[in-house]
Amino acid sequence: MMHRIMPTAAVIAAAAIGVGAVAASANASSVKAHGAAASNKNLVLIQGTDADNFYVTMGCGAKAEAKKLGYSIKVEGPTEFSPAEQIPIVTAVTASKPAAVMIAPTDENALIKPMQAMKAAGIKVVQVDTHVSNTSIASASISSNNALGGKMAADELAKLIHDKGSVVVMNEEAGVSTTEARIQGFLQEIKKYKGITALKTEYTGDNPAQAAQTITALYAAHPDLSGVFATNVLVAEGTDTGLHNTGASGKVKIVGYDADPEQISDLKKNIVQALIAQQPYAEGVDGVEQSVNAIEGKPTKSILTSLAVLTNANLAANKKYIYESSC
User: Fold this and answer.
1) pTM of the model
2) Could you give all domains of the chain from N- to C-terminal order, each with its CATH number?
3) What secondary structure does DSSP assign to 99-138, as a single string?
4) Among 8, 27, 93, 227, which one is most buried in terms of CB atoms within 10 A?
């Protein structure tokens, strides 16, 4: 608010002209700034890995929503879920100066500096699926409730093994926000079942062959192994293979995470007995919406998408949770 003390009509008139000129100049600057921001219609989605149909499906949702809102989008990611592979992609994308980037960070800490550099370059940053430990970088974060997903997996696995025996979590690698939350939720919930013993969590990298070798050795060492919680698509695939090779398919119950087409096939064949499914398509849609809001100066918000336990009995009613291998 301005305090004005104008004693004469002449002064009032002069002031009015001056104020009008200032206002016109300010409006022109505002329009110019808004136009410059709006003229950059380029978005990028940096996946955790391009080898995972979860991220393929996310890309499909992002592409559809970007087209709907009049933006162009480029989707790319490393071949493996690895900071060493993802960071050069982040650096190259920053140099290309899109208006906004959606990113699934492959490590809670290793991606902080590259993402800070992206933000410092004037690029809006939205996290999808995973996140870094620094909460000041992203305009919004889109993910499912991974701790809840782990809890749901524990309850389903306990039901499958009739509340008794040993269970193990098969995970990719430490330092990934989503899977760490799933493990925490699972281990906290499984404690409620007094007849179940949780073995040490196994880390196998995002490598199905390594997961197969690990579960094979683990089954030989623990013949009372009754259940496995596999925290992502590739780990679940390897676990399935290892148990099949040992002849333990069906005997050792598996709850997987995600609903890749191959996992759906395994569910139908009873190789895996249940899946905790996310909605990556919705995450892609929401990620673009929040990116555009950030670009256009509108309020942004973080979103938790829904989860479902998929079994053979309810699969037909939950088709929206099944991931795609292409758009």
Assistant:
1) 0.76
2) 39-143+281-303 (3.40.50.2300), 146-277 (3.40.50.2300)
3) SEEEE--SSTTTTHHHHHHHHHTT-EEEEES---S-TTS-
4) 227
